[in-house]
C-alpha cells in the first residue's frame, strides 16, 4: 500500500520533476501546430496513439508523460528509482483510482525488459497502457478491470541494457545485463541458495517497491522462448545452467521440477496466459534444439534452475504470485513483427490480470472493527505466509475447494477459519481476532502464542516460506472451536470475466 509519504514522493517526482520537460514538449508542439489555444489543449486536439516501432528511453518516457497528462483520471506516472546510468525506472498505474489504493481491491503489476535485449515485452506494455486507457468506458471488461484493480506497469526494468541492444538480434547477451554487467534476474535474494551477487540499483528499486505495495499478482515479461514459467525457479539440489540453450543440452540432468506449495494455482495462472495467447498453448519448440512445453507452460526449475530470480523472490518474500512470461522466440525481432506480437498477447495480458479476483479477500480486524496491520496469514498446508496491509486487507488466489486460513498477530489469539472457494466469484470474509489478554484462561504461564510477526520489521529480509513449519499449528488448533465460513457474493459481475 502507499503510505502517504510514498505517494507524495512519487507524485512529486512525476509532476514536478517532469513538468518542465512536458511543457517543453508542449511548446515544441505549439510551434508546429497552428491551432493551439490553451496550454494542455494541445494533448486533446492531437491524436493519441502508439505506433508499432521500438521506443528508446526518451521516446518511452515521452509516451508515458503524454499519457499521464492526457488521462489524468486513469493514470499516474511514478519512478521507483534510477538505473546505473541514471535513467528513471518508470511505473505507470492504470486504474480508475490511479493515485490511491482502493481499499479491499487488489494491486497487480507487470515488469518487462528486466533483460535489456528482450524487447517485445517492453513495447507490449506501452500498447497495453494505450489499450487500457482508450477502451475504458467503452469495453465492459476493461472498464470493470480498471474499476476494481490497480495495474502497475514497469515497461523497462533495465533501460540501460535496452539502449545498447540491437534490433534484429534474436539471441546473444548484448544488452541483457545492466550497465555494470549484472543479470538482474539473478540478482534477488534466493530462498534455496545464498546469492552472493552484489545487489544492483535496479534490483534494490524493485525490492523497495514490492515491499511497499502488497501486489497480489504479477507477470515478468521476457523473450527468447515461448512459454509461461512458474515457481520455483530454483531447487535445493540443482545444477546451475546459465542459459536456456545450454540447459536444453543437459536437459536430462535438469528435468526435476521444484514444486511450490501453490503449484496448482501457478499452473492455473500459467494456463490462463497460454490459453489466451495466440499460439503459446501449442507448446512448440522455438527451434529443433530447444525444448517444447506441454500446453505452453513449465515449472521454472524443470526447464532450467536458476538462483536469484525475481519470481521466486516475489512469491517467497512477499506472497505475490508472479510468473515469468516468455513471449517471443526472437529476443529483439524487427519492429515490423510488433503488431503480430501485440495481436498474440493482448487478450492474455488482460485476462491474466483479472485472476487477481479469484480466491479469497477480506480484512483482519480487532473486536472493535479496527484493522490489524501485519497480521500473518497462511492457507493451511501452503506454507508461504503473507501479511495484512495497513488497512488489514488480505487476498489469496486459490482454486475452487475447501481450505483453512491460519491468522496470527502479536497480542491476539490466533485463529483458524474454514472457508470455501467457488469458481463464480471471490470468497470475501473478515477475520476478527480477540486480544489475548482479555481471556485470562488463556494466559496461563507457559502458553506461547505464535509470534511470527515479531521480527517482521523489514519485509525485505524476512523469509515467509517455511516448508517444515508443522509445529506452528498447535495454538490455532487449540482455538479451533470458532470457525466461520462466509461466502459473500462480492460482485456477481466478476464471474463473467474468468476465462
Ligand atoms: Zn529474460
TrEMBL record:
One of its GO terms (molecular function) is zinc ion binding. Keywords: Carboxypeptidase, Glycoprotein, Hydrolase, Metal-binding, Protease, Signal, Zinc. It comes from the Eukaryota. Its cofactor is Zn(2+). InterPro entries: CarboxyPept-like_regulatory (IPR008969), CARBOXYPEPT_ZN_1 (IPR057246), CARBOXYPEPT_ZN_2 (IPR057247), Peptidase_M14 (IPR000834), Peptidase_M14_domain (IPR050753). Pfam families: CarboxypepD_reg, Peptidase_M14. Residues 1-21 form the signal peptide. Residues 53-356 form the Peptidase M14 domain. Transmembrane segments: none annotated. The keyword Protein biosynthesis does not apply. One of its GO terms (biological process) is peptide metabolic process. GO terms for cellular component: extracellular space. The active site is at residue 326. CDD domains: M14_CP_N-E_like, Peptidase_M14NE-CP-C_like. Belongs to the peptidase M14 family. This is Carboxypeptidase M isoform X1. It comes from Ceratina calcarata.
